[in-house]
## 1
Amino acid sequence: MLQKIYDWVDERLDITPMWRDIADHEVPEHVNPAHHFSAFVYCFGGLTFFTVVIQILSGMFLTMYYVPDIINAYESVYYLQNEVTFGVIVRGMHHWGASLVIVMMFLHTLRVFFTGSYKKPRELNWVVGVLMFFVILGLGFTGYLLPWDMKAYFATVVGLEIAESVPVVGDFTKTLLAGGEIVGAQTLARFFAIHVFFLPGALLGLLGAHFYMIRKQGISGPL
Amino acid sequence: MQRGKGMKFVGDSRIPAERKPNIPKDYSEYPGKTEAFWPNFLLKEWMIGAVFLIGFLCLTIAHPAPLERVADPTDSGYIPLPDWYFLFLYQLLKYEYAAGDFTVIGAVVIPGIAFGALLLAPWLDRGPERRPMKRPIGSGLMLLAVVSIIFLTWESVDDHDWEAAAQQGEIVDVDYDVDESAEGYDIYLSQDSCIGCHGDDMLGTSAGPPVFESDYDVDEIIEIIHEGIGSMPGDQFDGSEEELETLAEFIANDGQEP
């Protein structure tokens, strides 16, 4: 049955070459923990991606309840946390997942660095990776404000003060992020938009580039 | 790829009519014990993923995500704290030569150099050598950076007053329904000093508790306002004795017209 559906689509769209491109890639011995236990360090990248997927899915569920305005944001998070079935788990996954992404990404960065895998011909993939590092820190910063509780509010005030202290572009950056002089209604709306649309969009684009390059070049060889 | 004459297409589309075989590549001649990612390796890897996911779910069940009370921008006494992965940057800005007049150094120069070097690592270290021991400068700098991040995070956690932090953010059960049309409330609102510590809703800030917290009677409240209590100074009330009494009755009656 599945085969029939596949053949039907394949006849019309010729998906076999595309599918083989995606499915065919080798796992060399030196990165396979089944052969060398120490190769578990090569799992960090995959686990980072796995947690990113968890973040995207749990985040999608959070937006089913979350209301991004200063009157209702806190109430909606409170409701989600205390009333909604499994709400506390979904929010917990998104909360702890954020930390986990950072940890895994940090470990992955260290693995790539200490195996010298950023060297020619993989320079571009390293740069894309570091850009994703920044995007994810940005996601962490903007997401922290969204529950609109005390720690969220004051951490953002401090964060924006730091951004403001940057010479030349500081004032502009602060106004751009805060949407005005104070951290308030505009700021929440902007952080929400950045957290939910701009940065995830950038992240998906960069992830695509990251995976395309690794597939094209193959993983770096044994040391 | 087939070219030239004799190509057949599906209908009037650009899809070739000839089907290509859907068979995996053969890795048997690759060096070492190479195996195919799909499906061989993935079938093993999803088990690692499953273990990881279970551990993760246990964490979320054991420790629900924290939520403090709703943001109150007027509460200037709140000690702010970013999420833990920004603590090292936050801590850096507390040191003398990275704060105050030197904020630019702590906020821009040091992180800028560190992250800039990270971004440009492939061009800063162009030698072909990949082993970490054979490129001591790069490895040394990275180790230094990692140790500094861990140290700064540690210092920041150590510096922070976690008890005060937990208390200042606590969700207070607000079951007082302050009658804002009462005379006592008007008198309270005219007292800037009280508002500074107890908030304009009388429900407290980080400098003082809700005024209704304990069950004092009118005389005790008048005494507290005259004499002060704990870290609350006395003699802050600005008005006549009658007004003070009205206010005290209002407070003793948990925010309702007595």
## 2
Amino acid sequence: MLQQSIKSYIQQDLQTQYLLHLADNALILSHRNSQWCGHGPILEQDIALTNIALDQLGQARNLYQYAALLITEKTGIATTEDQLAYLRDVGEFKNCLLAELPNGDWGQTVLRNFLMGSYQFFLYQELQQSAIGQLKAIAEKSIKEITYHVRWSADWVLRLGDGTAESKGRMVQALELLWAYTGEMLEPCDYELPFIATQSSFIKAAWEAKIASVFSEASLVHPTNEWMQSGGKKGIHTEHLGYLLAEMQFLQRAYPGLEW
Amino acid sequence: MDQTANQLQDQFQQRIDLEQKIEPRDWMPEKYRQTLIRQISQHAHSEIIGMLPEGNWITRAPSLKRKAILLAKVQDEAGHGLYLYSAAETLGISRDEMYEQLHSGKAKYSSIFNYPTLSWADMGAIGWLVDGAAILNQVPLCRTSFGPYARAMVRVCKEESFHQRQGFECLLQLSRGSEVQRQMCQDAINRWWWPSLMMFGPKDDESPNSKLSMQWKIKRFSNDELRQKFVDMIAEQIKLLNMVLPDPDLTWNEQTKHYDYGAINWEEFKQVIQGNGPCNKERLEARKKAWTNGDWVREAATVHAAKQAKRKSEAQTFSAKETQ
Ligand SMILES: [Fe+2]
Ligand SMILES: [Fe+2]
């Protein structure tokens, strides 16, 4: 467990919460993508998706390291990226629900990456103008990677949407499942507002336009449900995250306080 | 007719003796081609199956740094598989055929990957011992007589030696850690030591394919020579870890200037090759499952590519008509 004083500090500092939110999105998505490593349908694509998982892990680390630095400075308690990743429980994770859903088949995985990657693309584009120097630098580095992730996943959405009857059917099914989780990304919560308040409606519009253009080329139509699942950003997760963390954090929890 | 065949054969051997590389379009004896297809594809399969035991721990790596190192390492192994499949393809076999041979059990892969990874320390032990043994087997292959294989191995070897250093460093960290970490480290070494000695293959007097492979410079050192090199290297490196190798007979021999080591359990080796290792079934099942689950994906990609090509050529015909 994180020390109580670190927890309390996080609870009252919006910037740290925001950084953790961004980092958690990247880490959890990386975790899911990394589960494909060694099990992909095509060797070249196994390598490509692992690359994406590595990029996302790198982004998460940059953000956790920055958050850890701020916490250390403010509380005087030495805090590390690993403490933030390994010692928080489900309720303290702030990633969007979309990131934590199981991989499903290859279609569901590439679709999730496309939906979330496109959002991250427009978000990080805005964060490149951030007044916070370190966040700006992380955004500048990440955007190059995310540009590739979006291109790669959009190509796959297109291939599968425009492939066979089976692939099309699977994409329709995946879309039905994932769509209800897209709204959460686009509605900023309290800790996001100070950082992207004015840009959030632009991000949403740009995301919708990007999705619409790729879907139309892939002849896919997204569901029109109004109701969106949310809660992840505030620590109310799906049942899946608990299992994910149990696996990810196992060594740190079984043998507390050791260096690896 | 026989005359020409003999001439070709002589010229071929001459080129090999002169250390010239044989390239895919060159004449080569059918047996040379088959031997290489078998060896390179077996090597490629080992890289791909080898992703599985370590892949096990990607989601459980104990720190973000270790996770990044492990993920990159397993990805490198996929890359090695890719280079090697490509090298084998130049000999006239397709990657799909090679996969089929793997999935049907006809093609073999390195037996070492049929052992389970039970603790985090196994990631270190595999890097240090398994990648370490692989390097000794592979460095001579950078000069192997078949050009595409030799070139693939140059790239592979660079990365393997990096893996070995990372593996050692992982164990070093554990060896300097808590009592439970030191135990984890020793336990992993105990379990991986003997199987990694078996990676060099049967003893020289029981290695059926070796003689011809030496003559063709596909192979340059005998199994036992390489195994001895490995023992000498590891017996020294382990001192830095303050751990021991699980062999009471391991002793420095002043006369031979090598380490003597105990008897290898060749019965176990035989059993694992025959499919009775602890994880043979899981490993092969995992690969077969990945392949069958990917059927619809590969099919869709092919169909989409064909549709795209058709649309493109139609658009061209259309615009050609317009400009007429
Ligand atoms: Fe390798
Ligand atoms: Fe390796």
